[in-house]
Amino acid sequence: MIHLSEGGKVKTIKIADKIISDTSPIFFIGEIGINHNGSVEIAKKLIDMACICDVDAVKFQKRTLELCVPDKMKNKIRETPWGEMTYLEYRKKIEFGEKEYVEIDKYCKEKNMLWFASVWDIPSVDFLEKFDIPCYKIPSAQLTNRELLEKVRELDKPVFLSTGMSTEEEIDKAVNILKGHCDLVLLHCNSSYPAPDNELNLRYIQVLKERYPDLIIGYSGREEGIAASLVAATLGAKVIERHITLDRAMWGTDQAASIEFSGLRRLVRDLKKLPLWLGDGKKRIYESEKKVMKKLRLKNTL
């Protein structure tokens, strides 16, 4: 539920027992996506990694392949760890169905880890509703899919909307469809895997904050390394989403744009420290400085 502060700005959005607001700690999403390569055991290891690193939620991706795979791609032959197969066969190999999500749902509940998913089509929304996930993600590729936006807004659940490869006009239209019907978080994003440093355009986070003052703004990062995500949070992103992997050298299209355990641990740790580092902007002499002042400031002739 959105609670408004004076002036109309969003004060809080609640996702299960987690709060996102202008004053709350950063809400961190560990994007597992398809980095599990079709293995529930790998997915569980990634969930374990997220738990150890104090991630707020993990996210998967759900597609109805017959709808989401372009016809021109379905029969193209692709090299995979399972041998040569058509692109559609490969996508089926790594797409989790009900059996896998039942296991994931159970495992996340045992670990007290929130999970949800990006939805790419309407049947996938109906599929995920079986698990009563606490929120939804609309990926950048589906920002212009009016039917999907309208379907998700009917659920009265928080929605994260990535804005990669979209014009401001398209973002405005998508926001107008969702806003007022559901709790909405806009995520600045570059949709390349990995995203080039010179295309991150992190200053646009501030533009989004000014353009949509009543929305929470976040950042979905595809870049290599962790520093840019810290900068994004410094610029005002209250949600950070990053792909996570057991090993960036693993096979898969998203692995190179993901972060491993050590990077994830450092990034989440530093994001949680960020409010302490930034302070309140008021100048004061701290207790720790007073001893130094007595020792070094021998004269005060001002």
CATH architecture: Alpha-Beta Barrel
The gross shape turns out to be globular
By CATH's scheme, which homologous superfamily applies?
Aldolase class I
Measured distance between first and last alpha carbons = 54 Å
| Major sheet | 8 strands, parallel, barrel
How do the helices and strands follow one another from N- to C-terminus? Answer: EEEEHEHHEEHHEHEHEHEHEHEHH
Instruction: Give the structural class.
Output: alpha/beta
Strand order of the largest sheet: 4-5-8-9-10-11-12-13
Rg from C-alpha positions?
Answer: 21 Å
Q: Count of helices?
A: 12
**Whole-number tally of structural domains:** 1
CATH level 1 name: Alpha Beta
Count the strands? 13
Helix content: 25-40%
Identify the quaternary structure here.
single chain
The average pLDDT value, as a whole number, equals 92
CATH fold-level label: TIM Barrel
Unreliable spans are 1-8
| Proportion of beta-strand residues | 15-25%
